[in-house]
Amino acid sequence: MFLTLVVKELRGHVLNLRYQVAVGLTLVLVVSCVLACARGYAREVEAWRAEEREFDEVRSQDFTLSEILDKSFGFRRPPEPLGVVCYGLASAMSRPVRLEVSVWRGQPLSLGSPAEAEPVLAFFQRPDLAYVVAAVVSFLALLFVYDAVCGEKEDGTLRLILSSPVPRDLVLFAKWGAAFLAMAAPLALSVAVGVGLAPLAAPLGLGAAAWLRVGLFTALALLYLALFLSAGLAVSSLTHRPATSLVVCLFLWILLVLALPALGSQVARVLRPVETVKHTEARKQAKAEEVRDRGFRRVEGGGRMAEWADYMRIREEIKRETRQIDRARRARLLEQARLARNLARASPAAAFLHAAGELSGTGLESWTEHVESVDRLNDRFTGEVERIAMDLFATRGHEAMNEPIQAGLLPRLEVATPALRQALAAALPDAVALVAGNALAFLTALVAFLRYDPR
Q1: Cα torsion through 228, 234, 236, 240, rounded to 10
Q2: What is the number of helices (H) and of strands (E) in the chain?
């Protein structure tokens, strides 16, 4: 009996013009979006390679110690291929990072874009594949089932079905199952076709591990789709006219997809405020000048000229104080972003996008790992420069400032996408939130349908 009901509902969906338009729209939007993002990835790779050539040209030269101490060196993370699926925080992670060591002027180290990245709203800024699923597919799902119950009541079909000895819960399960199969198959096919055609627009070089992540993203998208189908059935079972159900579904979509993510971010900004980058840099500069002046007064108070060891002690104190300011801001920024993510989990769209970002290597945890990799580069880079400087001054004295040094021997930026196990662990809370939302929405639909009056 259950299969008979599913086949009946499925046949009705497939022959419906609304379904055919929804399937065609999903396929066109998903494929075109992936291809557009792939072309954007190709442009980013080209820009990254051009900058890397420029950086390599600088690093291939020999500089004197004096020039190295006053020169900035650039590094940039390569674009993430799975950014075509979920762009997430890729723009924040792929901006150039410039390291500058200035012992003599006592200026703080410049860490470039990671200190400036604001990850709170970045997931809602670019229409990638994940955003198409989050916004468009959820909207189509609600439109697909908004009249599944109240529409059949209006035309008398529901009363006829319920007059037969078929349990009501079986009828609802059949409606949900048929709607899910009808929409899940085109969505999964669209994702596979879109990602499969993406290499025509850009050489993504996706291996087995990347395709596994795409498969997990598809499963996550189907879970998200199921939630909105359940929500649509719940609304249809709680109303008695299709027009009323449609209005409620539109309101629900605006609330869950647009309003709650923005509200969570704004609340996080209020509860965990973070000072601007300009203010942070001003505080670092003021602290550097304070430490430098205090150090020189201490040396001059001893009645002697500053030696190299004094400069290094002052440099170390400046670096320690300014890095503490930088890290305090980053910790506050990460705290704000995680609070915003936790608050936004009330929105299925936000939960889906955050989980998709983690699976694609462009999520908040990937951004955190990138910031930490820049910090590690900072320590290695400045440590190597200081080691070279100390060795040269020990043997050449002040003539060491004119000693040539190969910049190519200095450390480079080393980054890696978090392993799949880490990505799954980071995405798990959002996936659990989607499962809980599914259970709540379907339970609401079931209770409402069991008490529904078909007359």
Answers
A1: -160
A2: 17, 4
Distances in whole angstroms, Cα of residue 372 to Cα of each of 1, 72, 100, 416: 58, 20, 18, 11
Instruction: Determine the residue type at 440.
Output: L
Q: What percent of the chain has pLDDT over 90?
A: 27
**Among 224, 249, 69, 53, which residue's Cα sits nearest to residue 151?**
249
Other CB atoms within 10 Å distance of the CB of residue 297: 10
Angle at CA 290, nearest 5°, toward 287 and 294? 140
**Tokens in use for 239?**
């109303």
Given this model, what pLDDT does residue 115 score? 35
Other beta carbons within 10 Å of 148:
26
Amino acid letter, residue 377: L
Which pTM does this prediction carry? 0.83
- For residue 306, what pLDDT is reported? 56
Helices 308-344 and 277-301 cross at an angle (nearest 10°) of 160
Helix ranges (H only) for 345-419 are 348-360, 364-396
The residue count of the chain comes to 455
99: part of which helix (H) or strand (E)? strand 97-100
Q: How far apart are CA 262 and CA 340, in angstroms?
A: 9
| Collapsed DSSP state (helix, strand, coil) of residue 63 | strand
**Adjacent-strand bridge partners of 64:** 404
Locate 158 and state its tokens.
């529901």
User: Over the stretch 289-334, which tens digit does the pLDDT of each residue have?
Assistant: 888 787 777 766 655 555 666 776 777 788 788 888 888 888 888 8
Q: For residue 193, name the pLDDT band (cuts at 50, 70, 90).
A: very high
Q: What does each C-alpha distance from 198 to 126, 187, 237 come to in angstroms?
A: 18, 16, 41
Pick from 274, 239, 259: nearest CA to 445: 239
Identify the CA nearest to 116 among candidates 150, 140, 89: 89
More confident residue, 115 or 9: 9
Residue 39 near residue 199 (C-beta atoms within 8 A): no
pLDDT of residue 50: 84
Helix intervals (H) in 60-121? 65-69, 90-94
The bridge status of strand 62-64 relative to strand 404-406 is antiparallel
Tokens of 378: 């900072």
Amino acid at 166: V
